[in-house]
TrEMBL record:
Domain of life: Bacteria
InterPro entries in UniProt: AB_hydrolase_fold (IPR029058), Carboxylesterase_BioH (IPR050228)
Protein name (Swiss-Prot/TrEMBL): Alpha/beta hydrolase family protein
Originating organism: Maribacter spongiicola
Residues making up the signal peptide according to the UniProt record: none
Stored CDD domains: Esterase_713_like-3
Length: 372
């Protein structure tokens, strides 16, 4: 019995020494710090919105029981039409945060991770020590509480969006496309779509985003698609937006009211610019702006509506870039295939080369001295 105890104790000592030696070896092994994200603060909050109130007086006895089929709303309120924000601030963070705003039918998931499971812009830029704010605009995603009703329709439209997002035609991918061809990746992508829970209200979205910058202070706005045009308008409402990175803006380009370009027709629609006063427009010349477009965008009219609408958008973006720069602004328009980066869809932040896309943006931030 004594010998057994001695053996167990000796074995424990040897195990302890071995574990300590192993831990020492691990501690002495160099760690790639770029793979570690150290967060000093994170959280969620709502911003913007308003409160709807019903007439009458709330009676906690008569109206207090929840009964969906016979529920009185007298004297009660509804908080809604706000944006929902998730933020993370890394340790030793840079001064200016990045505020990421999604596109049409999307949510903050656009930036969180790729459909095939790789890191998205959220983590990529946290590793570069940028504070990151992800938002769901009013009446979308986590900000779904709308003050106005809307009937939701369950339409079978996956293939339509597959084309509009320039992944391919029908169910066939374009050659050399950067999007993952793993069927599960496409499945995950389609499941990211989320509907508006109320009527789309651009002014409501712009107000919420301007209030967000009013709350967090100076920052850099990163937009995608539908939020691109709204981003220009948000910058007109607040001087807290110090730069804009716009991925494939598709609408709501603003021009001086005496210099509005002709509408651009495309298969299925017409792209029109919006006019604002020259004084307002001049605000856009005070901040650096960069615009990125991906691949599979034709230079001439084509019959494929999924491609042709982006021909119109890119054409309008070129007119807008020239107009802002002619007024003394600083807009850079980058068509990725023209700088040797090919195969990107409407979602370059989700494509297989999203790290390269992020590096292009990061280099622009460095060029504009926005990395402090």
């Amino acid at each position: 019995m004594i010998k057994l105890k001695y053996t167990l104790v000796l074995g424990s000592i040897l195990l302890f020494i071995g574990c300590n030696e192993q831990n020492k070896q691990i501690a002495d092994t160099p760690v790639e710090t770029n793979d570690i994200i150290s967060i000093q603060k994170q959280g969620t909050f709502a911003v913007g919105g308003s409160v709807k109130k019903s007439h009458g007086t709330f009676d906690p006895i008569a109206h207090g029981a929840f009964n969906p089929s016979n529920q009185s709303t007298e004297g009660q309120t509804l908080h809604g039409d706000h944006a929902s924000v998730f933020y993370q601030i890394p340790t030793e963070s840079r001064k200016l945060p990045l505020v990421f705003w999604h596109g049409y039918g999307q949510s903050m998931r656009t930036w969180q991770s790729t459909p095939d499971g790789r890191e998205g812009f959220q983590n990529i830029f946290l590793k570069k020590r940028y504070p990151v704010y992800l938002l769901d605009q009013p009446r979308r995603g986590l900000a779904g509480q709308s003050l106005e009703p809307k009937t939701l329709e369950a339409k079978t439209e996956d293939q339509l969006w597959f084309g509009i997002f320039r992944m391919g035609e029908g169910k066939r991918f374009y050659p050399n496309v950067q999007f993952s061809k793993d069927p599960e990746a496409l499945n995950q992508f389609f499941r990211r779509s989320t509907p508006d829970t109320g009527p789309l209200n651009i002014n409501l979205n712009i107000e919420a985003v301007s209030q967000l910058f009013g709350k967090i202070g100076d920052g850099i706005l990163v937009t995608h698609s539908h939020s691109g045009g709204q981003g220009w308008s948000a910058a007109l409402k607040t001087d807290r937006i110090k730069a804009i990175v716009a991925y494939e803006p598709g609408s709501n380009f603003v021009f001086p009211e005496d210099n509005i370009p002709e509408p651009i027709s495309y298969v299925g629609g017409t792209l029109r610019a919006k006019g604002i006063s020259l004084e307002e427009f001049q605000k856009l010349t005070k901040i650096p702006i960069v615009i990125y477009y991906g691949d599979y965008i034709p230079e001439i009219e084509v019959k494929n509506p999924g491609q042709d609408q982006w021909r119109a958008a890119l054409s309008m973006a070129r007119k807008w870039t020239k107009t802002v720069n002619d007024a003394g602004g600083d807009v850079t328009l980058v068509v990725l295939p023209e700088i040797g980066i090919k195969g990107n869809t409407h979602f370059p932040m989700s494509d297989l080369n999203n790290q390269e896309i992020a590096d292009v943006m990061y280099n622009w931030l460095e060029e504009k001295k926005l990395k402090k």
